[in-house]
Amino acid sequence: MSKSTINLSTQELAEQNRLVVERFFHTMETQDFEVIKEIFAPEGKQLMPYAPKGYQSSVNGLDAVYKQFSELPSRFAYFRYPRRLYTTDDPNLIFAKFTGEIGLHDGSVYANDYVGTFKMENGKILEYAEYFNPFIMAKAFDIDLSA
Protein backbone atom coordinates (compact mmCIF):
# COMPACT_ATOMS: atom_id res chain seq x y z
CA MET A 1 0.00 0.00 0.00
CA SER A 2 1.43 3.37 -0.94
CA LYS A 3 1.84 6.20 1.53
CA SER A 4 -0.78 8.31 -0.28
CA THR A 5 -3.36 5.52 0.08
CA ILE A 6 -2.72 5.30 3.82
CA ASN A 7 -3.01 9.09 4.18
CA LEU A 8 -6.20 9.17 2.15
CA SER A 9 -7.88 6.53 4.30
CA THR A 10 -6.67 8.32 7.44
CA GLN A 11 -8.08 11.57 6.09
CA GLU A 12 -11.38 9.89 5.25
CA LEU A 13 -11.62 8.43 8.76
CA ALA A 14 -10.85 11.82 10.30
CA GLU A 15 -13.54 13.44 8.13
CA GLN A 16 -16.10 10.78 9.04
CA ASN A 17 -15.34 11.32 12.72
CA ARG A 18 -15.54 15.10 12.30
CA LEU A 19 -19.01 14.66 10.81
CA VAL A 20 -20.11 12.63 13.84
CA VAL A 21 -18.94 15.45 16.11
CA GLU A 22 -20.78 17.95 13.91
CA ARG A 23 -23.87 15.76 14.31
CA PHE A 24 -23.40 15.93 18.11
CA PHE A 25 -23.54 19.73 18.05
CA HIS A 26 -26.50 19.69 15.67
CA THR A 27 -28.24 17.30 18.07
CA MET A 28 -27.69 19.75 20.92
CA GLU A 29 -29.01 22.67 18.90
CA THR A 30 -32.12 20.84 17.68
CA GLN A 31 -32.61 19.04 21.02
CA ASP A 32 -33.11 15.76 19.15
CA PHE A 33 -31.45 13.83 21.95
CA GLU A 34 -32.42 10.38 20.64
CA VAL A 35 -29.44 10.82 18.30
CA ILE A 36 -27.16 10.56 21.35
CA LYS A 37 -27.97 6.83 21.38
CA GLU A 38 -26.65 6.56 17.81
CA ILE A 39 -23.45 8.58 18.08
CA PHE A 40 -22.06 7.59 21.51
CA ALA A 41 -20.40 4.24 22.11
CA PRO A 42 -22.05 1.99 24.74
CA GLU A 43 -19.14 2.74 27.08
CA GLY A 44 -19.04 6.40 26.02
CA LYS A 45 -18.53 9.12 28.58
CA GLN A 46 -18.52 12.86 29.07
CA LEU A 47 -15.82 14.46 31.19
CA MET A 48 -16.07 17.97 32.67
CA PRO A 49 -12.75 18.51 34.47
CA TYR A 50 -13.58 22.10 35.50
CA ALA A 51 -17.01 21.37 36.97
CA PRO A 52 -17.43 23.15 40.31
CA LYS A 53 -17.52 21.12 43.50
CA GLY A 54 -20.89 19.46 43.86
CA TYR A 55 -21.38 19.10 40.09
CA GLN A 56 -20.65 15.95 38.12
CA SER A 57 -17.19 15.85 36.59
CA SER A 58 -17.95 12.72 34.58
CA VAL A 59 -20.93 10.89 33.16
CA ASN A 60 -20.17 7.28 32.29
CA GLY A 61 -21.96 4.91 29.92
CA LEU A 62 -24.43 5.52 27.12
CA ASP A 63 -27.52 5.42 29.33
CA ALA A 64 -26.09 8.04 31.72
CA VAL A 65 -24.87 10.24 28.85
CA TYR A 66 -28.29 10.07 27.19
CA LYS A 67 -30.02 10.91 30.48
CA GLN A 68 -27.67 13.85 31.08
CA PHE A 69 -28.37 15.41 27.68
CA SER A 70 -32.08 14.54 27.39
CA GLU A 71 -32.80 16.31 30.71
CA LEU A 72 -31.21 19.59 29.59
CA PRO A 73 -34.43 21.12 28.15
CA SER A 74 -35.92 21.16 31.65
CA ARG A 75 -33.17 23.63 32.61
CA PHE A 76 -32.43 25.40 29.34
CA ALA A 77 -34.63 26.80 26.56
CA TYR A 78 -32.21 26.49 23.64
CA PHE A 79 -28.59 25.86 22.70
CA ARG A 80 -26.43 27.48 20.04
CA TYR A 81 -22.84 26.50 19.57
CA PRO A 82 -20.88 28.59 17.07
CA ARG A 83 -17.91 26.29 16.55
CA ARG A 84 -14.75 25.29 14.78
CA LEU A 85 -13.87 21.62 14.54
CA TYR A 86 -10.34 20.44 13.88
CA THR A 87 -9.05 17.06 12.89
CA THR A 88 -5.68 16.03 14.26
CA ASP A 89 -2.86 13.68 13.26
CA ASP A 90 -4.86 11.00 15.07
CA PRO A 91 -8.01 10.47 12.97
CA ASN A 92 -9.85 9.32 16.12
CA LEU A 93 -9.29 12.61 17.96
CA ILE A 94 -11.31 15.69 17.06
CA PHE A 95 -10.72 19.06 18.72
CA ALA A 96 -13.52 21.61 19.05
CA LYS A 97 -13.42 25.28 19.95
CA PHE A 98 -16.85 26.73 20.56
CA THR A 99 -18.98 29.28 22.32
CA GLY A 100 -22.09 28.24 24.15
CA GLU A 101 -25.06 30.55 23.74
CA ILE A 102 -27.55 28.87 26.01
CA GLY A 103 -31.01 30.32 26.59
CA LEU A 104 -32.48 30.16 30.05
CA HIS A 105 -36.21 29.89 30.64
CA ASP A 106 -36.27 33.38 32.17
CA GLY A 107 -35.19 34.85 28.83
CA SER A 108 -31.55 35.46 29.76
CA VAL A 109 -28.60 33.85 28.00
CA TYR A 110 -25.72 31.96 29.56
CA ALA A 111 -22.59 32.33 27.44
CA ASN A 112 -19.27 30.63 28.01
CA ASP A 113 -16.25 29.71 25.93
CA TYR A 114 -15.31 26.06 25.52
CA VAL A 115 -12.80 23.69 24.09
CA GLY A 116 -13.56 20.04 23.76
CA THR A 117 -11.90 16.85 22.70
CA PHE A 118 -13.74 13.94 21.18
CA LYS A 119 -12.11 10.53 21.23
CA MET A 120 -13.73 8.31 18.65
CA GLU A 121 -13.90 4.55 18.19
CA ASN A 122 -15.60 2.77 15.30
CA GLY A 123 -17.43 5.94 14.26
CA LYS A 124 -18.86 6.62 17.74
CA ILE A 125 -17.94 9.07 20.49
CA LEU A 126 -16.02 7.17 23.14
CA GLU A 127 -15.08 10.20 25.25
CA TYR A 128 -16.15 13.82 25.12
CA ALA A 129 -14.11 16.10 27.39
CA GLU A 130 -15.60 19.57 27.85
CA TYR A 131 -13.46 22.40 29.21
CA PHE A 132 -15.16 25.67 30.14
CA ASN A 133 -14.46 28.69 32.29
CA PRO A 134 -15.82 27.78 35.75
CA PHE A 135 -15.72 31.43 36.86
CA ILE A 136 -18.19 32.43 34.15
CA MET A 137 -20.42 29.49 35.11
CA ALA A 138 -20.23 30.40 38.80
CA LYS A 139 -21.19 34.00 38.15
CA ALA A 140 -24.08 33.05 35.85
CA PHE A 141 -25.59 30.50 38.24
CA ASP A 142 -24.55 32.03 41.58
CA ILE A 143 -22.22 29.16 42.48
CA ASP A 144 -19.81 29.53 45.39
CA LEU A 145 -16.43 28.28 44.15
CA SER A 146 -14.80 28.59 47.58
CA ALA A 147 -16.61 25.52 48.92
UniProtKB/TrEMBL annotation:
Keyword Isomerase: yes
Lineage of the organism: Bacteria, Pseudomonadati, Bacteroidota, Flavobacteriia, Flavobacteriales
Identification of the protein by name: Ketosteroid isomerase-related protein
Species of provenance: Flavobacterium pectinovorum
Matches recorded under SUPFAM superfamilies: NTF2-like (SSF54427)
Domain of life: Bacteria
UniProt entry tagged with the keyword Cell cycle: no
Domain SnoaL-like: 21-128
Pfam families recorded: SnoaL_2
GO MF annotation: an example: isomerase activity
Keywords: Isomerase
